[in-house]
Each structure stands twice: as C-alpha cells, then as structure tokens.
Design brief:
Blueprint: H1 3-88
Length: 89
C-alpha cells in the first residue's frame, strides 16, 4: 500500500465522517421543530375532540330534558287513568 492509496482511504473516511456529522447536526436542529409541529397538531386534535364532546353532551342534556318532560306528562296521564279506573270500580 503506497501513500496515494492510504491518502484515498483516509480521505474517504474523512468525507464519510464529515457527512455523518453534518447529517446528525441537521437532524438535531430539525427534530425539535418536527416534535413541536406534531405537538401542535395533537393539541388541535384534542381541542377539536373536546369541543365535539361538549356539543354532544349539550345535545344529550337537551334530549334528556325533553324526555323528562314527556315522562312527566305520561305520569300525569297515567295518574288520571288510574283515577278514572278507580271511579269506575
């Protein structure tokens, strides 16, 4: 192995090392931005889910109130029917 071949090997190793360092540094600089964007996206999804859940809960409350009113009406009618049946006996 002469000096020229050794220089080529050292140069190739140096270029490989430099490329690796540059790639790692670039990823280290970009990764926090990716994580922050992912966090913002998750936060928006959670917020949308919470808003949807709140709307559904309000709808369910309204429906429950309507059902409660109907049940009260049915109970009143049932009481009236019971009175009529007792009077008939």
């Amino acid at each position: 192995m002469d000096g020229h071949e050794l220089a080529e090997i050292v140069g190739a190793i140096g270029i490989f090392t430099l490329t690796t360092v540059i790639v790692v540094a670039a990823v280290a600089r970009i990764a926090p931005t990716w994580r922050a964007r992912a966090q913002v996206a998750r936060d928006q999804e959670y917020r949308a889910l919470a808003e949807r859940s709140a709307r559904i809960q309000e709808d369910m409350s309204r429906q429950l109130a309507a059902i409660s009113g109907r049940l009260t009406e049915v109970e009143g009618r049932m009481t009236s029917v019971e009175r009529v049946l007792k009077d008939v006996e």
